[in-house]
Write a structure and sequence with these properties.
The chain is of the alpha/beta class. Helices cover 31% and strands 16% of the residues. The chain is globular and about 60 Å long.
């Protein structure tokens, strides 16, 4: 195939030149080492996928309380920063570009993963209808406690510190995880946020935490190195809102006013039905945000090319296809068959189902 498709055309993401419009979406794999430190095996995994226009790393907890799954690599200790440097150096040597996803799971956790066995934190003391990966198996979440209003600024500061740590680790930028029912999303939704203070109730209050985090991170590393991920209608981790369209239109407008680099949008149910949930005008998000728009969820080559041709997106994120296909860009360009995903090795383990998927054999 020739490079006439918009999917394989270059894109200027502010100061970062991307060779194609294909983004590797964040994918939790639970393979960090002791101390939740990134490993050489992780560096190999990401370097194998460096042909993506942009890699967004798996979610990286910003603090010990931010963990909700076994062996997720953090970004808050010197050892973790050094481990991530192995990853970014490997990706850059392979010609790639990589952002880190900054993550706090909030209530989507288990006391076994929390410091001192304490309850997870959340905007309100409402348990998530979800399961987490603990001691090698999926277990129910634990009941959370509501953050005191005086604690919220400390969590915001942890996001900013994590962003500075990410730049020290050699990342090209950061993505703030505001999707899939994790802490920021929990503040946004009226189903999980029942606060009656400045962080709950009206949309302007429920978006406050997100905007304060974005402001702090942008002040730390510059808005041109910051993206945000949202998932307006996904039911992931028991998240829900009675009227998501005005909520997320306000989110898009607020992020646009802050001049951040991109908005990464999960269209439909994360990892599932693109048409799931309440009717939602995703084109309305696109109109309200002037930065780069990354479309995500269930895209194949034809759907991606149509979205780019119709100006519904600037970049297209692919998730699980990148797990089994380290050379996904080449396979899409050649319309080559994709390797089958082995679900048994998705979470935890070693090289099997991680770095041993074969690349194309080119004659």
């Amino acid at each position: 195939m020739t490079r006439t498709s918009p999917l394989f055309s270059p894109y200027h993401l502010a100061a970062i030149d991307l060779p194609n419009r294909i983004v590797m979406a964040p994918l939790t794999r639970d393979r960090a080492g002791p101390g939740d430190v990134p490993t050489a095996l992780m560096a190999e995994y990401y370097a194998q996928r460096a042909s993506a226009g942009l890699i967004i790393s798996e979610g990286s907890p910003i603090c010990p309380e931010g963990h909700g799954y076994d062996a997720t690599p953090g970004i808050y200790t010197p050892e973790q920063i050094a481990g991530w440097r192995l990853v970014t150096d490997a990706v850059h040597r392979a010609g790639g570009r990589i952002f880190i996803q900054l993550w706090h799971v909030g209530r989507v956790s288990n006391v076994a993963l929390q410091p001192g066995g304490r309850a997870p934190v959340a905007p309100s003391a409402i348990r998530a209808e979800a399961r987490t990966f603990v001691h090698g198996e999926f277990q129910p979440t634990s009941p959370p406690r509501a953050l005191e209003i005086g604690e919220i600024a400390g969590v915001t500061a942890q996001f900013a510190t994590a962003a500075r740590n990410a730049m020290a680790a050699g990342f090209d930028g950061v993505e703030i995880h505001g999707a899939n029912g994790y802490l920021i999303d929990q503040f946004l939704r009226d189903g999980s946020n029942r606060r009656q203070d400045a962080y709950g109730g009206a949309i302007a209050h429920r978006t406050r935490f997100l905007f304060e985090v974005v402001d702090a991170v942008a002040a730390a590393i510059g808005p041109d190195r910051v993206g945000v991920r949202i998932a307006p209608v996904t039911p992931s981790n028991g998240i829900a809102d009675s009227d998501p369209e005005p909520l997320f239109f306000a989110v898009a407008e607020g992020l646009d006013a802050r001049g951040i680099l991109y908005l990464h949008v999960v269209e439909g149910a994360t990892g599932g039905d693109r048409n799931h949930g309440q009717p939602f005008d995703f084109s309305g998000l696109r109109r309200r945000f002037r930065g780069a728009y990354i479309a995500n969820n269930g895209y194949d080559r034809a759907l991606a090319e149509d979205a780019l041709a119709q100006d519904r997106a600037d970049l297209i994120a692919f998730g699980r296809p990148f797990i089994a296909n380290p050379d996904l860009v080449a396979r899409l360009e050649r319309d080559a068959p994709l390797n089958a995903l082995v679900r048994e090795t998705l979470y935890g383990g070693g090289a099997e189902g991680y770095t041993d998927y074969p690349a194309l054999t080119l004659g």
